[in-house]
Batch of 2 targets.
Target 1
Amino acid sequence: NAGVTQTPKFRILKIGQSMTLQCTQDMNHNYMYWYRQDPGMGLKLIYYSVGAGITDKGEVPNGYNVSRSTTEDFPLRLELAAPSQTSVYFCASRTRLGEAFFGQGTRLTVV
Amino acid sequence: GEDVEQSLFLSVREGDSSVINCTYTDSSSTYLYWYKQEPGAGLQLLTYIFSNMDMKQDQRLTVLLNKKDKHLSLRIADTQTGDSAIYFCAESKNRDDKIIFGKGTRLHILP
């Protein structure tokens, strides 16, 4: 089982560029999440989705957008990259019983 | 608002027990989680407990929940060098709600 797969693993962006962080899961989970992790700050929720076609803002949504056209995929879009978006991004999906499984992360640097 | 607090560092001698503590503020939290993160890796679900339980044991791991005090602990028996990691406490109201994380406790193993 692949579980939760994130691509790319690493990326360097210039200020003002845009990119999409990909996340896909093969466990047929309805609930999916995007978090960012900054050193010593734990994980902050960016966006989440309770099913295809439904998304909601988390604690730190500014500068990001998401879509959920299928159960499997939950891409995160950065439109105008800023240095403050340098972080490690984690995607997660969750079972009906509440267990949440995380991808390996995308390390993004904005210069 | 919702908040999860945990101490940032813990040092333990190899072979001793480690106890990582966590407090949360939302009394309606239903799911309480412990995740482990090794350097450069994603988050691995160690265990979770429902709010209607007060203890859960899984091999070397014991989770204790004091719902009255909103206090959660993770005990690792016979701590090994492979247990060196950051441990995150997290909570969620229900299975389709966001998961709120603490900042993580870095466990350091002394020889």
Target 2
Amino acid sequence: NAGVMQNPRHLVRRRGQEARLRCSPMKGHSHVYWYRQLPEEGLKFMVYLQKENIIDESGMPKERFSAEFPKEGPSILRIQQVVRGDSAAYFCASSPLPAGDYNEQFFGPGTRLTVL
Amino acid sequence: RKEVEQDPGPFNVPEGATVAFNCTYSNSASQSFFWYRQDCRKEPKLLMSVYSSGNEDGRFTAQLNRASQYISLLIRDSKLSDSATYLCVVSSGGSYIPTFGRGTSLIVHP
């Protein structure tokens, strides 16, 4: 059973470009979480999705950021018009049930975004 | 006050030492507690869940103190391979959004 997959692993963008980060959850997992981690900082929650639904996006910046988890295919985190402050590691985690209630989250290897 | 607080360290210990980390949480309604381990530039991985009765897995022991609102992680007989950042994770009742602490860095040296 393959683990959580994320691609690309490394992404370099110039200011103003768009970044698309992909996450394929583990087989059988319908709950996907996106987190951002800045150097020397903890994981910050961004958005929680189930198939075709955004459950909670309270951690997502109001502008330029969007996420989706379509019926078919991976979850996508999209960042429009990237700025240098968007440079970070973006981790996706999946679980068969909602996180909490002692349900473990399984993390992908992350995408390291560098904005030049 | 931050929701989940950890001493960032680093904790620098020799091989074979016993080391303990604490993590405090502010929401008294918190119900699920975990320790994750994160190696440098890698993804977090679950180390152990922390139950009310406490739990032990080999050299690792986790405890929960609800009255004082903290969880702890004890590592006995430290190995070089234990060097990593240990993340405290707390979920509140009714919330599906876990809160991660900033992590405590452990460096085990020969």
